[in-house]
User: Which sequence fits this backbone?
């Protein structure tokens, strides 16, 4: 073995020992409250990726879309192949600048939340995705406190993912895992349009 | 209509006009080079979410995993239901601190890249995911230049996603879309272990 390889092995053995100790120190299993926020891409997409992972284990997933109506057609079509495991509730009527009607947006948000509350109480479901809920919260279409209470009262092993920009500080405080997606570089700035399979 | 609602409608009409003008200004359609990097969660998961979206339109996806071997079993099982559309190439033998063998890691990376190069030349494929390629690049297991050349020479409409921490500056420079995932809050810090459906 060369000197470089010996050094590499020693370094990696040390790293593995640290890694193993770290893994051993983590013993808690719990349903996580996950928040994907920030201005970058990948908030909803990562939530759908988690859904895919979960159904790979034969576990049930429920998705409520608070804002997007016509969007997300690609993943909805694909997930239809798992209709034994996935339920899809598209409750939003589009972005709030599309409807231009605050009362209608509030009513749609309330209907979506009523559905979400039922799902959050169902012990059969392993993962509930509340897609773009942060948008409804940001415009104060829904109060945060009853939502946090319902999430806290969910059956223990259930994971919950909430997506959307501008997550409220109280939601971040309650969450177990918060990821901020930031756009280091975005193709829209270079004049590239929304394309099938990428944006929708 | 109340005064608040009238104000809301005016504000949203203005926002919609801006939004529509912005959308109209974007006319370019092209295969994107997408990079998901940063220390936070969701880099690979968002890539798998994009795969799901793409297969929803009946388009082909190929995934090469450069590092993870035993991991990603959930999404692999789920995507097996789409074996008409998705090919999965798990070429890595685990994290480099697991193998502790630099020559073996380099050989595995080279095999993975040979497979990736073939896929990047296939005009039938709509999306190629090079999962954790950034790790192999970071340890200099593979040179970046031939990879950038192969990506640049790919059939025009193909999208490519590269994931992993510490994306190289030259890769970021070449990319159309770069998202940095940062961990605002992470459950591992609170002693929660890796769980089925969330981490693997």
Assistant:
């Amino acid at each position: 073995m060369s000197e470089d390889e010996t050094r590499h092995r020693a370094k990696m053995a040390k790293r593995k020992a640290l890694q193993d100790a770290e893994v051993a120190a983590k013993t808690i299993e719990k349903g996580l409250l996950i928040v994907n926020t920030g201005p970058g891409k990948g908030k909803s997409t990562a939530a759908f990726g988690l859904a895919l992972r979960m159904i790979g284990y034969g576990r049930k997933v429920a998705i409520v879309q608070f804002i997007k109506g016509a969007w997300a057609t690609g993943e909805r079509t694909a997930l239809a192949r798992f209709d034994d495991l996935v339920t899809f509730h598209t409750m939003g009527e589009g972005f709030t600048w599309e409807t231009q009607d605050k009362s209608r947006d509030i009513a749609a948000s309330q209907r979506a939340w009523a559905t979400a509350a039922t799902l959050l109480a169902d012990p059969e479901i392993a993962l509930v995705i509340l897609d773009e809920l942060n948008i409804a919260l940001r415009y104060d279409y829904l109060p945060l406190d009853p939502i946090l209470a319902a999430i806290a009262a969910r059956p223990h092993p259930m994971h919950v993912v909430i997506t959307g920009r501008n997550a409220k500080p109280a939601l971040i405080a309650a969450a177990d895992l918060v990821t901020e997606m930031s756009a280091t570089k975005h193709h829209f700035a270079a004049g590239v349009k929304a394309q099938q399979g990428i944006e929708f």
Q: What stands out?
A: Chain B touches chain A through 85 residues (CB under 8 Å). The longest strand of chain B covers residues 177-185. The two ends of chain B are 51 Å apart (CA to CA).
